[in-house]
Amino acid sequence: MNSPVPNSSAFSELRAYFGERFSTVPDVLEQHGRDESRAERHLPDAVIFARSEDEVRRVMASASQFEIPIIPFAAGSSLEGQLIPVRGGISLDVSQMNTVLDIQPQGFLATVQAGVTYPALNRQARPHGLFFPVDPGAEASLGGMAATNASGTGAVRYGTMRDNVLSMRAVLIGGKVIQLGTQARKSSAGYDLRHLLIGSEGTLGVITELSVKLHPLPSELAVLRCHFRSVEAAAQCAASVMQAGLQPERLELMDERQMRAVNLHQGTRYPEAPTLWIELAAASRTALDEALALCAELCAAGGAGGVELARSETERQQLWQARHQAYYAARALHPGHAMLSTDLCVPLHELAPTIALTHRLCAENNLDASFVGHVGDGNFHVLFHAEPEDAATWQMIGRVYDLMVAAALAVGGTCSGEHGIGLHKRRHLRAQHGDLLELMRGIKALFDPQGLMNPGKIFEED
Amino acid sequence: MNSPVPNSSAFSELRAYFGERFSTVPDVLEQHGRDESRAERHLPDAVIFARSEDEVRRVMASASQFEIPIIPFAAGSSLEGQLIPVRGGISLDVSQMNTVLDIQPQGFLATVQAGVTYPALNRQARPHGLFFPVDPGAEASLGGMAATNASGTGAVRYGTMRDNVLSMRAVLIGGKVIQLGTQARKSSAGYDLRHLLIGSEGTLGVITELSVKLHPLPSELAVLRCHFRSVEAAAQCAASVMQAGLQPERLELMDERQMRAVNLHQGTRYPEAPTLWIELAAASRTALDEALALCAELCAAGGAGGVELARSETERQQLWQARHQAYYAARALHPGHAMLSTDLCVPLHELAPTIALTHRLCAENNLDASFVGHVGDGNFHVLFHAEPEDAATWQMIGRVYDLMVAAALAVGGTCSGEHGIGLHKRRHLRAQHGDLLELMRGIKALFDPQGLMNPGKIFEED
């Protein structure tokens, strides 16, 4: 299917209605033709900046009428090619739908338009002593985060988007508006279609509004940082912290290559060894000190060295700094290289052996890969890099990646802990959920009988 | 559609295979013809006791071939008529599939057959210092609990089945086996069909196996019990405990009528006033004492009287006793009466006003209703009762129930916090999710094109 050309009659109504917010300016198309991944680039035929659900409905009605593909877009921070208009069409940009509509401090909930970013929500929640804990990095929008079931460093304590979205409004192709979920904290009222939209990567409808859980800001916080002889030892220690029931706020790992990248990039002198960050919270200083003491014991038993502790906000930020710089440091270290970040997730008791296996696979195949991970979830990223045109290395990366996925699936894990499937992991999805693909395609056809919603994503083309 | 008679050729193969585990004994049919609700009773044509997934597949293949309705059955403890074979067919009893297959203490997970009850799982988890926190009461099976997205007193801290089921195996009509979810703690791999099966009340397939999260047993526990002048004041205090971030393990409410019922039933002398239970956990005695002190302050500020504290396991069980007896006491107080328990759930900030409104509705209509609730979730039960044949009272109860549902929906709540839809709440589901029913029916048709899975449940007949 080819979409109509932007100056055709199919677009004329939309162009007339949206005026300057209907754009075919090359820079704007370019910006909506890629995401943060190493994916091929395709331009949309047009970009529309919607400012209300009603405007989204209008676009979705026209799209159905004229069979124009729709790619929902907000912050543009997806990592698996989710936003790339592989079949052209309209990139429907909801980033201007960025109003926090309501905060109910007594109900622990906020209602926002889909284009609100999580840092923006947090700026409004914090004065109430509350915060939204899902932090995938980048300035991601809540609509996009729901669409990929995003998570990040806070998931170990507060869960993913799936655990924090109470209800949503969405527009289906053709313009029908649906309301999914409720604002109550639990519900057993029919099939939970909310969980279909969460993680649907724009293939079922356009999310326009979300009600999400807020959580009380922890009153006492501290961060421990320490390093280990091996990544496996660090992962094992992370598992032991979880097993002790310490419920860390964050539990992050970086390997020695990542630490070296940061030192080179930042001019710092961190020990270039696998490093663990453990952030703990408690209701009082006494309770926090007890937790820290237990945690330090576990680290010592796990062979940790160089234990450092930060309490004040400034100190904590300083201690976290290397972790925050990880991705950019790795990028800066290999200028001109494209990066590929995996996001496997395995059961906690399988984390250390899986990381060990992955390490070996990379070494055996001479791949220079670094590790960083939300290890309290069993989720870790391997950062690969190579020159974009270096086909041989990318082929090798692909082969090793497939082996890593197979190893994760064999121990009950998943090919994607948080990035989603997009364009890049469609074959991995087949390996993981081949028995479910027919049902998933059936559901896709129910919501989007014309196949116009973000075509080419999640499912391999027939 | 009428199902075949049990001695027809349709059943002969199954009868031959299952022998005595294919039953048409009147007592057995009777036991599978009702649940714990005040629903009409219908007998199945036959009951089959399956002992393995392979046996379930065999039944599901025959059922498709001969168009026989299938009603999955395990503990028989549903409350909304979910188990009632309104169109006859086979009650497929998986209660003998009761093996705990695997416990991974380091991975915080257990894998069980669908007929394992949560108390049985807990008996095997506790020696590892772990437990499964979803406790709907009765000796419910994990398969059935997943099918209704059950919760209970532990949900305020640990969530519902939806939050605790990592993966499932299920058999579809015709015999196909599917695997939903993974054992990893998070996944963003395609549409999350796991959440369709959870809460599907046996209308999509038969759950045969589940992997669920286990949690560390809290090391220090204490329970506060206190009473209030009004249910609204108690509910308000419950909300303030949540808002303080105390994260109680349980937070339960009973009104004065419930307390009186317990006194009459048990010969106890509890104050006959709205009563709140707050169970707190901490990693140490010091941390627990701090939390208790804050909690006691909040209770005092909320106007609580008669504050009692229990620490040892025996004392705690004693303090909880009245709460555990609630349902049976209410039942015993009105011998011969049928009971109906609602399970509305509203956002926390709407709880006290919603309870006040509900109270007024009952009083205005001279309904003798008592309240009990998992108030930390915003979830509360109103227990109605009347003689089964008293049509006028049941009509009034129905009218008041509809008004209660409308009030809950108006503030963003749900008609069912934990019991599900079954036969009784189908009209409430339409009020709540009317815009989604077409999609839900489409999904039902995808999984069960012949309409054989637990017919008549969730959806009103055409």
UniProtKB/TrEMBL annotation, chains A, B:
Its EC number is 1.1.2.4. One of its GO terms (molecular function) is D-lactate dehydrogenase (NAD+) activity. Residues 40-217 form the FAD-binding PCMH-type domain. One of its GO terms (biological process) is lactate catabolic process. Its cofactor is FAD. Pfam families: FAD-oxidase_C (PF02913), FAD_binding_4 (PF01565). Keywords: FAD, Flavoprotein, Oxidoreductase, Plasmid, Transit peptide. InterPro entries: FAD-bd_oxidored_4_C, FAD-bd_PCMH, FAD-bd_PCMH-like_sf, FAD-bd_PCMH_sub2, FAD-linked_Oxase-like_C, Oxid_FAD_bind_N, Vanillyl_alc_oxidase_C-sub2. Belongs to the FAD-binding oxidoreductase/transferase type 4 family. This is D-lactate dehydrogenase (cytochrome). It comes from Deinococcus psychrotolerans.
